[in-house]
Amino acid sequence: MNIKCVIVCLLIYFFSFIYASNIEYDGYVHINLRHALVSSESPVFTDRGNITIQSLRTGSSTIQQKALSQSDKIKLRDLSAANKFYQLKSIVTASDGSQVSFVSTIKACMLVESELSDILSVSLDYSGKVITVTLAVASTSTCEGATVPIDKLKEFTTSVFVRHTENGPVPDTATYIQKLEREREAKERGEVKDNRSFLAKYWMYIVPVIIIMVLSSAANPDGAGGAAR
Amino acid sequence: MYTLKLSFIKYLIVASFFNVSFSLYEDQIGKFDWKLNFVGNVKYGSIDSSKRLIVATEENVLASLNLKNGQIHWRQILETAPNQIVLLYVDREIITVSGGKGTWYVRGWDLNVGSLLWEWSFYMENKQNFYWILSKDQLVNVAPVIGSHLEVTQYDVRSGRNNGKTVKISTPWVSDLSRCTTAGVYWACLSSDDSSGQLYYTDVLAPANQVHMFPVQSLIGSAPGRVEIKFLELSDSNLLLIRNNAARYIHLKPDLPHVYPYSLSPKAIAVANGDQTLLLQMILNTTTKKYQIQTIELQEGTENVFEMEYNNEAGVASVITAFCKGSACRVLIKSNDNSISLLQLPGGKASWTREEALSQVVSAEFLELPLSELDASIEHEFDSVSGDRFSTFYNRIFSQIRQLLVVLTGKQGNSNIGLVRDEFGLHKVIVVVTSVGKIYALDSITGSTVWSKYLPNVQPFLVLEHQKAPLFVQRSARYSPLAAQCVVLMKDKITGHGVMHAFDPITGEVVQDLRLPYRIEQAMLLPIEDENHLKGILILSDDNEVNVYPPSAKSIILKHSSSIFLYTANSNTKTLHGYNLHQSSNDKLRVTSTWDLNLGQAELLAVNVRPSSERIHSQGRVLADRSVLYKYVNPNLLAIATLMDDPIHKHVLSIYLVDGVTGLVVYSVAHKRVAKPIHLVHSENWLVYTYYNARFRRMEMAAVELYEGATQSNSTSFSSHAVSQLPHPETQAYIFPGLPLAMQSTLTERGITNKHIIVALSTGAVTEVPWAFLEPRGPQGTMNPEEGYIPYIPELPIPAEATINYNQTIPQVRGIEVAAARLESTCLVLVYGLDLFYTRVTPSKTFDLLKEDFDHWLIAFVLIGLTAASYITKRLASRKALKQAWK
């Protein structure tokens, strides 16, 4: 009984896992990354690299990013020192040829402090279409401007995460009905099995009553004596 | 034995949660709550006798009002929009025709009690304009086909029997339906909209269907200007030809139309007075600025003018109906602010006015009241820190004398009409903005109107198919002597440009009324106060210009420019954009795009943020093993709901939780084969949403809760930029046995009290669902009672005791507004729809309040008695000790 339940639970868990990663259309996505290293009202985006996600389902990707040029390094350092924002434009080309571009902004000092190690999060909707590309830096705190030696800014080490839309929860009626059944069964079984004597069953109610009676009679022995007189 | 005990414990837990739900004793009805009943925007009206007025409204309400005081006798609510009442006829019974979307209902109602007497319905395929005529127990449906013919179908009005055929009348002259009308049994059209055209009319019921044609010039002469045709209300076979705002009364006859020589206003109506017909119209006397009613007897032409004692800043929109008996008349008029008034002739008095705009509330806000003058003066005593000893002494004595005076006289020398803050913060002012542009302030204790203000020519914004008028509280009444200040944003009816109205919510005094020269794209209240404790408002125009009100707040924006973020959601392009202001300079504020979200083809249904005033008391939840699961509390989180058409799953609902600063999708979930209606509630670290499951044909409610895990990434301050780990979501879904119209979560002062979700149902009930019922039970699926969870039940119960409006049905609910009282246990609730309902809810019961029937006298007597007894016994004991010593 118990083993069966474990297997069922495992299966349910497994299925839910499959469901979560089951997008209907697998495909590849090509992302062209461009960044702006000078803070201005109409930013000028220069080429940063390319990312190809071969399979949206598994999330495997190849990343091609050039090392930063000396002038770019200086720009980035200045951006960080002035506590400005680093902007990234991702031009996403889907497998059907459609092109969408997304802007993402992070604090330049956080990028610099992490020595150009960043996270690119590619969010998909339920059908596997890219809805947004967000750049983030793994950190537990923010900074208000930072100066970092320029030799630490060499190359971007980017990790790409493809984030699927999960399937929503459904009311779990089956388990509930099973649980009710189990409870009913247990109750039935319990009623059949329970053939102990009256005292064995209800001792916990009888004992306190006796104790109280004993205590109360012990508390006023003269009262009882008075009544007898 | 063990299982039995366990299930008993479970029962106890469940039972205890049922008891948590607020319920009312019979004698508490109306003690904490009030309800205002409305009929809506009146469309048709008919005065039946000297006692009754029957109205039909845009909100699909049929009601009978008392002619003496305007109170509702009875009210019947028909199908909701887009169904419309298109015909109202009152005789011995009331006949209505209502419907839309192809199905039409014909109903007969009892005059006295409003009960349904008979009903029949029919389906009409073509969805073009219909015209309805009721003539001698025959209901005639006229369906014009432009440039071709009229399809005329007759039905017996009571049984719905038709004679089996549709008559086609050839009318090639019907070119534009705006120039056509029905007039009694006639169908009349103008061939062009100037004086050179022809007037065509035909009797749709006559067997011959002869078409009459007369040049407009021969009827009303030639003059430049647009000519319009209008059916004259409350008359038979009569119409008005309007040119340059002057109307001529034309009586249609089979041979020649008769033109009466009176110059009328386009809003004139005709009233039967015995055998006579009386023309009645309302005129504004330009010199005295007073309204007059002019009556003209149709046959004799005798004119009478009555001065009206009626005043309305909004102006009169139309005369709806009138009833005359001899020289006495009752006239029902509707004003531009949708209020209706009954005027008496010849006296000229207004008997009553109903503020029907309150049935069209689009936004509401609870506002704290100012301190009473006395309390304020006590507070000001400590204002002058540098004050010398003498002045402080003087202040102290002076305020104490005033306190003494108040105690002696029992009244406060107060200017602000009893609107003062109470101890528990239960007395508030509710400011509501209505879709016609009238702002009301309501007293939360009584529901009475404190003040009202009409903004002419404005309309609310249409945000994701909902009418919205953003209402911001710039300064609460906390900072006396500075008055509170609110701003409401609407748009101009004609130009679509923004309208900003800044006012004092307590007195209604206008601070500033601005017509902005641009359209509003987004508006936001700045979280930072200036030196006058005023929070600025940032308005983004449609060409991405940033404007600030008051302009002095610009310096604050410049100071915090890199930490002010805003977002826009565009339902046409299905995109969301994030902006910040870090490129702003001294001369100009600029927005810079920071993130984009492209929803593709999905329809944007809702964008929801947490209430800014919400406070979260507990940082995490304690698990059975004494470890803490920390909540993911992101104040910048947006909850977005979209619905996408799908070839396989029909419709797919997607819910996204997006960080408003970085645009990072924190969590996303999709539900397949679901349909509208969809409602979202976003609070603390959780989100609750409802949707219709088309596969199982039921409403479902799902809850998502976000946790950071066993460690808290940053306990001191939250930053959206620092992403250390993505939150771990826990979800669970339930069957909800009801159709929600609006949802809101309760809000309390410090967030200690449990959360309840207030759900307005289509049945007219407003119910509370405890969050504890919805809380996801975690991945372990813990049925473990030690975790403090209620055992999972797939179908949520809606117990009758959880209905906060007991037996008072609230129809057509559009929204729920909540506010925290100063009592932690209490949350104030305003439910608005056709009616307004106010009450308080206490999700964790009134733990911080003594019971009403608490026996103060008993406890006082016991205390005094005990004190006295202790003194007496002390004395006795000392006497005894003394005696003992002498022995």
TrEMBL record, chain A:
Residues 1-20 form the signal peptide. The chain crosses the membrane at residues 202-219. Its main location: endoplasmic reticulum. It is a single-pass type I membrane protein. Keywords: Endoplasmic reticulum, Membrane, Signal, Transmembrane, Transmembrane helix. This is ER membrane protein complex subunit 10. The keyword Endoplasmic reticulum applies. Belongs to the EMC10 family. GO terms for cellular component: EMC complex. Coiled coil: none annotated. The keyword Zinc does not apply. It is found in: Endoplasmic reticulum membrane. Pfam families: ECM10 (PF21203).
UniProtKB/TrEMBL annotation, chain B:
It is a single-pass type I membrane protein. Keywords: Endoplasmic reticulum, Glycoprotein, Membrane, Signal, Transmembrane, Transmembrane helix. Residues 683-886 form the ER membrane protein complex subunit 1 C-terminal domain. InterPro entries: Beta-prop_EMC1_1st (IPR058545), EMC1 (IPR026895), EMC1_C (IPR011678), Quinoprotein_ADH-like_sf (IPR011047), WD40/YVTN_repeat-like_dom_sf (IPR015943). GO terms for biological process: protein folding in endoplasmic reticulum. The keyword rRNA-binding does not apply. Coiled coil: none annotated. Its main location: endoplasmic reticulum. PANTHER family: ER MEMBRANE PROTEIN COMPLEX SUBUNIT 1 (PTHR21573:SF0). Belongs to the EMC1 family. This is ER membrane protein complex subunit 1.
